[in-house]
Amino acid sequence: MKKQKALRKHTITQWTLLPIMIVVVGLGWIYPLMGYVVPVVMVAGIVWSFYNGRYVCGNLCPRGSFFDRLMAPISGKKPIPEIFRNPWFRWSALVLLMGFMFYRMALNPTDLNHIGYVFWQMCAITSVIGVVFAIGINARTWCSFCPIGTLQMAIGGGRDQMLIDPENCRGCRICEKACPMDLEIVSHKDSGHVNERDCLRCSKCIAVCPKDVLQWPSDDKAA
Ligand code: SF4
Ligand code: SF4
């Protein structure tokens, strides 16, 4: 019951946040100051990652919410290709995209509208890439190499990872089917914790596990 309530809250939060992404991408080229929503989400994700890994990606990012709610139902639901998880690929994507963004900003660094426009432009370009991959592969494909996700993964992906009870997990993999990041869960069961730095802390796997063997360390303390 508690799990279902948490899932409902997560769903409502995402439906509330996803219009932000649609409005910013749709209107930011006319009103460039709207582009400043982008650095707000970027900074929030990075700061929060010191405490709880990629929590913002999984719960509060408007684009992540857009992928989960609107793209997932029409996605190809294929496995996310390993190349997108490769550290070389991810860090190269980060350097290229951030480099391009700062280069564009440096062309007119004192004009607030120009800076806002560059933020909008980056958001629009990467959203188009994300939507193409979402439809063709998997809704959260973009999130497996999003530069801000990569930073969050590096900073706090190892903090307070999910616990798994090795004795009672029956290996049915229902949890893995529910995971938006297509992460391995069962293969970690012998260690007792799910060592996946890209976990989005969305708790979807916890909600569907029929054996109730998944939980966060904080749930353990609260019990
Ligand atoms: S859904 Fe639960 S019982 Fe099934 S494999 Fe995942 S953790 Fe184990
Ligand atoms: S492992 Fe669980 S909490 Fe982490 S992203 Fe997958 S479904 Fe969400």
Question: Could you describe the 3D structure shown?
Answer:
The chain is mainly alpha-helical. It has 2 domains: 2-156, no CATH class; 163-222, Alpha-Beta Plaits (2-Layer Sandwich), CATH 3.30.70. The chain has helices at residues 2-27, 37-52, 55-59, 62-71, 87-106, 112-136, 147-156, 174-178, 204-208, 217-222; strands at 163-164, 214-215. A two-stranded antiparallel ribbon has the order 1-2. The structure holds iron/sulfur cluster (SF4) (2 copies).
Element layout with pairings:
Blueprint lengths: L1 H26 L9 H16 L2 H5 L2 H10 L15 H20 L5 H25 L10 H10 L6 E2 L9 H5 L25 H5 L5 E2 L1 H6 L1
Bound molecules: iron/sulfur cluster (2 copies).
Condensed summary:
By secondary structure, this protein is mainly alpha-helical. The chain contains ten helices and two strands, in the order αααααααβααβα.
